């Protein structure tokens, strides 16, 4: 589950596969572990996520995963997840001296008092199913195919993926290549509004298609008995309806600095994403150090850096703990803006969604794993605190004056300078707790 400022979007199947691919890279470099159980084994992993944003969204997500490892090296896994999401989400509009009325993702109309950051309440449920099948092809080549389905009130995702892993250099190096495809449908409550309009016009009742294709290439190297490193890269192409139908952009009177109206947002119909992920796992004797760095960039000019550190310490054979520190920072998309000048011509695209803005996130947490007496199975409890803030926009950043809007076909005069109004977005405090139980049989 992603942690973010606004209403959690459906967990991206692409990102979920990338996370799984990174784990498989590490696991596939030691294939003998999967073959060690001569008779095959089964495992059942369950977890419950409790996630809360202060005065914003709350999420309850139980997940069950079953995995069967066969003596032949084949493996099957299936996962079922169910999300219940409630709370409030910022609409993208700025505070105004007058009452503002909006319609939520649940189709509920609500009003926001003057001077308050506009938010809208929502309630949604999501069911997701993922399945994978791993098949050895000889002694050094392994294939994995998977499928994904998820459905919620206004979004459906169907996809598949395939991956090949090749062991070379006496299984000291594993080269992995994979691809995935998703065919999603977006069907907003009340129909799809026209972009950059006041929302009073006709809406499109038809489903909007969103197509996602991705590919990945990675290499894992066993450097020594204590050290494992991997490097992977992904390329993702999205096309179709990429706009968030419930988000709006305020129109600003630059003289008074007040919002005088709001328009539905509009985003480009194509996006190309890229990222490079480097990981290192080192056994320090009693402890295991996990380090990773991810660089991401796309043609919306949103670039990000992610640093992640985990240190696992085993107190004994039945108990361990693992502190976790993560830092994330991103630049805004080229069409991100805090508002549009009310009297200027409209640009081609504009969004005030904080998730496309200049974000900075710091996370601190820890996981504790333990066994309950002589009972089988392992329990884990992970708690994390995240602080997410919107960095102060600067001239030439995102929708600021003198930025990249002109060469992208948008009018710089339509974008309100940050100084035109006082936009104060307080940091968002997020707390999450995951309780898990795993058993082999």
Describe the protein in words.
With 441 residues, the chain is mainly beta. The chain has a single domain, classed as monomeric porin ompg (Porin, Beta Barrel). It has two helices and 21 strands. The strands form three sheets. Strands 1-2-3-6-7-8-9-10-11-14-15-16-17-19-20-21 form a 16-stranded antiparallel beta barrel. Strands 13-12-18 form a three-stranded mixed sheet, with no helix packed on it. Strand 7 and strand 8 form a beta hairpin. The protein is globular and about 70 Å long. The model is unreliable at 1-37, 394-413 and 416-422 (pLDDT under 50).
Largest sheet: 16 strands, antiparallel, barrel
Mean pLDDT: 84
Examine the coordinates and then state which fold CATH places here, giving the name of the CATH topology. Porin
Please tally the β strands and state the result: 21
Helix content: under 10%
**Which residues sit in consecutive blocks of at least 5 with pLDDT less than 50?**
1-37, 394-413, 416-422
Quick take:
With 441 residues, this protein is mainly β. It is built from 2 helices and 21 strands.
Question: Which keywords apply here?
Answer:
single chain, mainly beta, 16-stranded antiparallel beta barrel, 3-stranded mixed sheet
Set down the secondary structure blueprint:
Elements: H1 13-28, H2 32-35, E1 41-53, E2 58-69, E3 75-90, E4 100-103, E5 109-112, E6 119-137, E7 141-152, E8 155-168, E9 173-186, E10 208-222, E11 227-240, E12 248-253, E13 258-264, E14 270-283, E15 287-298, E16 303-314, E17 319-330, E18 340-341, E19 359-370, E20 378-390, E21 428-440
């Amino acid at each position: 589950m992603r942690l973010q400022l606004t209403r959690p979007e459906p967990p991206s199947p692409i990102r979920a596969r990338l996370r799984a691919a990174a784990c498989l890279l590490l696991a596939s470099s030691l294939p003998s572990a999967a073959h060690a159980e001569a008779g095959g084994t089964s495992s059942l992993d369950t977890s419950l996520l409790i996630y809360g944003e202060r005065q914003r969204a709350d999420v309850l997500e139980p997940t069950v995963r079953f995995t069967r490892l066969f003596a032949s090296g084949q493996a099957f896994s299936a996962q079922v997840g169910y999300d219940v999401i409630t709370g409030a989400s910022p609409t993208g509009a700025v505070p105004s001296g007058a009452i503002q009325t909006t319609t939520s993702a649940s189709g509920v109309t609500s009003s926001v008092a003057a001077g308050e950051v506009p938010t809208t309440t929502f309630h949604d449920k999501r069911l997701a199913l993922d399945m994978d099948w791993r098949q050895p092809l000889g002694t050094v080549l392994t294939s994995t195919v998977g499928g994904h389905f998820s459905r919620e009130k206004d979004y459906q995702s169907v996809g598949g993926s395939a991956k090949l892993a090749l062991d070379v250099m006496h299984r000291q190096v594993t080269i992995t290549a994979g691809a995935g495809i998703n065919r999603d449908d977006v069907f907003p409550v009340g129909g799809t509004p026209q972009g950059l309009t006041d929302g009073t016009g006709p809406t499109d009742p038809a489903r909007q298609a969103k197509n996602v294709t991705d590919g990945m290439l990675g290499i894992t190297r066993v450097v020594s008995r204590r050290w494992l490193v991997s490097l992977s890269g992904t390329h993702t192409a999205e096309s179709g309806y990429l706009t968030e139908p419930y988000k709006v952009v305020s129109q600003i009177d630059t003289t008074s600095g007040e919002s005088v109206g709001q328009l539905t947002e509009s985003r480009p119909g194509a996006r190309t994403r890229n990222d490079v992920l480097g990981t290192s796992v080192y056994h320090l004797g009693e402890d295991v150090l996990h380090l990773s760095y991810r660089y991401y960039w796309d043609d919306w000019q949103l670039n990000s850096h992610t640093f992640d550190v985990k240190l696992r310490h085993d107190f004994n054979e039945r108990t361990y703990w693992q502190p976790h520190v993560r830092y994330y920072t991103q630049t805004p998309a080229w069409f991100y803006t805090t508002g549009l000048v009310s009297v200027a011509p409209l640009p081609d695209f504009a969004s005030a969604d904080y998730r496309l803005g200049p974000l900075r996130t710091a996370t601190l947490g820890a996981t504790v794993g333990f066994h309950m007496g002589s009972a089988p199975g392992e329990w884990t409890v992970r708690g994390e605190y995240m602080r997410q803030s919107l960095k102060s926009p600067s001239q030439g950043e995102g929708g600021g004056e003198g930025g990249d809007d002109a060469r992208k076909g948008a009018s710089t005069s339509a974008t309100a300078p940050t100084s035109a109004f006082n936009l104060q977005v307080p940091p968002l405090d997020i707390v999450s707790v995951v309780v898990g139980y795993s058993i082999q049989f």
